[in-house]
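A quick aside before the break. I want you to see a complete sequence-to-structure record at least once, exactly as it would be stored in a machine-readable document. Don't worry about memorizing anything.
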Amino acid sequence: MEYYRPIDIARELHISTSALRHYEAWGVVPSPERAGNGYRLYTRVHLEYFRCLRALIPAYGVPVACKAMVHIQNGEMDSAFWLINKEQAELHHEKTIADQTLALLQNPDLPPAGNKKQKAYMSIGEVSAYTAVQSSAIRHWEKEGLITPDRDPENGYRIFTAVHIRQILLIRMLRRTVYFLDHMREIVQAVEHHSIEKAKKVTEDALGRIHQRNRDQFNGAARLVELCKVTELLDA
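That is the input. The structure line, written in C-alpha cells, reads:
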C-alpha cells in the first residue's frame, strides 16, 4: 500500500500540516495508522477525505462539510448526499430571490397584485392588502428606518406612494435570503433616493456571489462522489 507523509498531502492541497491535524481532531477524517516512529501513515483514502473536505467547506460551510464527512465515515452516503442537496435547494431559492429583485428594480411599473387597484396614495391598510404584508411588519420596518412614509398633515396618518410600495416588496423578498441581509438597507434606501442603478449594482454583486457559490457546490459534490468511489460506497 502506498503511504503519504503529512507534508506530501499538505503540499498537494496547499495547506499546512497543522491544518491536517486540526481536521483529524474534528473527527471528520479517519484516524491514520502510525509508523514505528509515531509518524502518521496516510493513504489514498485519507488524501481523498482531505480533498473532499477542502472542496466542501467553501461551498457548504464548515458545519455541513463536517457533518457530510461523518456520514461518509459511517457509510451513510445517501445521508451525505441529501444534506448537500438541501443546501443546493436553498441556494437555488437565493438565486430566485435575486432574479425577482432585479426584475422589480428594472421594471418601472409595479407588479400587479391580483384584483387590488394601485392608487397614487395609500393608507397602511391598503398597502398591507396590496403587498400581502402585515401592517405590524410595515410599522416595524418603519421603526427600523427601512421605510419613511409621509404623514397626512391633517390627521397624522401614514401616506404611502409607489416608491414605498416598491420598498416594501423589496424588503419582503430580501429578508428571506442571507445574501442580501447585510445590503437590504442600502438597496431599499437607494430606491427611496431614486438611485435604481446603485440598487441594481448591489443586487448584481450578490447574484455574482451566488453564481460562485453554485460553482463551488458542484465542485464539492464532485469531490464527494469521488470520495464515495474511493471508499467503495459507490462503484467506480
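Two observations worth writing down. The CA atoms of residues 141 and 163 lie 15 Å apart. The longest strand covers residues 33-34. We'll return to this after the break.
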